[in-house]
Structures are given as C-alpha cells and as structure tokens.
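Appendix B. Raw example, untouched.
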Amino acid sequence: QGIIPTDTKMNITLKSNRTQGTVELHLMTSNYSVIRAVVIFAEHLFEGEACMLHPVPPSNNVNKDVQTTMTIKALAGLSASSVQYHVFESVYVMPKFAMYHAIDEHQLPKKPEGYCQFELTKRPNWVWSWLQKSFINLEEQMPQPRGADRSVVLDANFISLRTGEPLCISMSSEQGGMMTIRTDDIEDAGELIQDLCGFLQVTELESTANFPEEMEKFKQVLLRVDEYNAVRLKLTAEMADSANLVKALIVKAEDYRMLSDMTHLKKVFAGLQQTNGDLIAEYNKRSNNHQQLLTQLKEVNMMIQKAAKLRVGNAKTRVVTACRNAIKKNNIHELFQIIRTGHDSSGS
C-alpha cells in the first residue's frame, strides 16, 4: 500500500564541503525509504526563513556566523513514485561556526598574521567541548597536539568556507592557561571570544591583540576622516563668503530699485543669480562630503566595537570609552595602543 516501515528513522548530520565552500545538511532514512521532499524552517539561513528542497536543493549561502535552530519536515516514501508519504519532523541546531572546515596543521595555506591572546584558567577539555558545540566535524576525544612545543595542550585549525582564510585556535599551559586565536579578521576573533566566554561563563577577560592588515585599513579610514573634515571646514568658509556676498547684492539691488536704475539693477540680479548658483553647488559638494564623512565615522565606530568584543566585562566597556577619548584628542598612536592592549598610555 506504499506505507513505509514503522521503525523507519531519519538521521540528520551537518558536513562541510571545502571544495564548494559550503555546509551541507545530510538527511538519510534508516532503510530503503526514499526522501521525496524536505521543508526547512530556520532564521538567518534562507530568504523568508524557509526552504523547500524538491527534488534538487537550491544554493543557499550562510553569510553570517550565527547559531540557528532548523525545523525540518521530510517526506519519505517507499519509492520515488509513491503516492503516500510519511512526514518526519525534526529539530536540528546548526552551530554558530559551521562555516569553518576542520583541517590538520600541515593543510593550512598560511599562518595568519593577526592574533588575539588572553589568559584562560579553564581546563583544555572544556575548551574542546566548546569547539565541539560551535564547530562541526570534530572528533569526540581531544587529539594530542603534534607540534614541537610541549607547552601546547590544545591545537585546532580551520579554513573558512566563505573566504578560504585560515583560523587557528590553540591553548598552552603557560601562566596557568594561555589561549591564542589566530585570524586576520578582527571581527571573527571577537565573535569567537564572545561565544567562548559565554559557553565557559567567563565574565571578565583581558586580552592583547595584533591585526596588521586590519590596523592598516583602519589607518586609511582615519586619514580619510581627517581629509573629509578639512574639506568640510573649507567648504563651510566658502559658503559663508558666498552668503555674505548674496546679502550685499540684495541690499545693492534694493537701492537701485528705489532709484529706478534698471540697468544697474539687471546687472546686480545677474550677479545675484550667479552667486546663488555657486552657493547651491557648494552646498551639494558639502552635502556629499558630509555623507562620505559619516560613512567613514561609521567605520571608525565599527572598529571600536570590534576591538571591544576582544574583551569581556569591565575591560570591554573601558576600551570603548578609552577609544572615544583618544579620537576626541586626535591621538591616533594611543588609539592603536588601546586596540592592541586594552589600555591607554596611562595604563587605565
């Protein structure tokens, strides 16, 4: 009658495909039953928060590191031509960092130059439990590090399926536990630290960081902010001069009108029209400059937030306040020091 066996079960797994740069959801029945269609409901993964696969799955790219719960409804029948189907309903959690493919150290294309380092007085097994929860395709037992450094107690390496960039997470026994996250993306490092501290219930965390590529980009942003500010001041002065000229021409035009001197009145109005046109053009330039300045200031604020996420608790709040004070003083050297160490030159 086309009804599948009553003991049929649906097995669900997540696997990373490094070749295609994707994370694949695998569904398999426990017997010969055929899966005819699948409906998945999940926030952040699909447009409209739902996806139906029937029969060829569409391409869906996960653009953001976020843990999401998938509600899966799979239709399974005895064969592809069955007219009766059983609907399996399952709930499956997609880890936050599923878009990272686990690899061995010798498979790394390069060692990331950027890193964030901090003391973590937790057992390596707890950190490995966090890795198992937040990533996919990791072994049940924590493997022993194979490097020459005997102090290293945990070493995990990944490749981003989005960008192909490497990510290295290691822990050594120095100073009671020293954690190092190597990546060239400061935002990814911040997300990892916040997730790790949330899992281990760490409420206060200081860190030191060095992200050469990110800091060079940030330096260019700050230079553009200074440039747009200088242009803004210059345009403001020019607009003030043009506005004063308009006022003077209006007074002069009124004088000629009262004297009934139409010849000079026409000349003044022609000059007034020209000056008004120049004033409008200067305003448009100032408006465009203002929008560009706002864009760069948003980049500055985002960088401050990224630097703050490398810390937890009071240190996080302190970094935001110190960075904003350094920007007010236009002290770029101190701003970079705060991002690297979490402290300004006074040590506060």
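End of appendix B.
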